[in-house]
Amino acid sequence: MRTAIYPGSFDPITLGHLDLIVRAKKLCDRLIVAVLVNPGKKYCFNAEERVELINKSLRNVPGIEVKTFSGLLADFVQAQNADFVVRGLRTVEDFESEKAMAWANEKLSPQLETVILLTKPELSYVSSSLAKQIAMFGGDLSAFLPQSAVDETLNRLYNKH
Q: Among 9, 57, 128, 148, which one carries the catalytic annotation?
């Protein structure tokens, strides 16, 4: 059974994330969406809330687990007996950082492979940061977030800046 890890902050989950999750699931038997918990970072949603938003968004997609992790991704991958990591590329700038992370993970865990999926062009502009900025001003998030995350994000951010 092939296991893959799709890591990220998912603060909040976007339509781009969902697309990559569904496509990544086709590459493996078991996909773990790994929600990063970084104590040095300020999140809009705490880890449990992010997991809940992801689970709500994936309720019709079987065979996907959502877990939190902190520390090194290479250690989490090894603890989950995963075969590879899936990452998405939206922009040319993403390529450089993803390449560096893939090489660092390979140095930390030589058997760890990283598979890169290109974001669909119609979703390449979508990011959690952009969605949060739009939400702060009460904008329409339907082109950025799954419906299950729209209301939660607006309730959390609108007129709170």
A: 128
Active site residue 90: yes
What class does CATH assign to 3-122?
A: alpha beta
Question: Is residue 59 among the annotated active site residues?
Answer: no
DSSP-derived 3-state class of residue 8 = strand
CB burial of 13-35 (b: ≥16 within 10 Å; e: otherwise) equals: bbbbbbbbbebbbeebebbbbbb
Which position among 9, 17, 87, 148 bears the catalytic label? Answer: 17
Predicted TM-score (pTM) above 0.85? yes
Of 41, 42, 160, 161, which is the active-site residue?
Answer: 41
Please, are residues 70 and 39 in contact by the beta-carbon 8 Å criterion?
A: yes
pLDDT digits over 107-154, tens only? Answer: 999 999 999 999 999 999 999 999 999 999 999 999 999 999 999 999
CB atoms within 10 A of CB 49: 16
Residue 40's pLDDT band, with cuts at 50, 70 and 90, is: confident
- E strands in 47-101: 64-69, 84-89
Active-site hit among 25, 50, 90, 132: 90
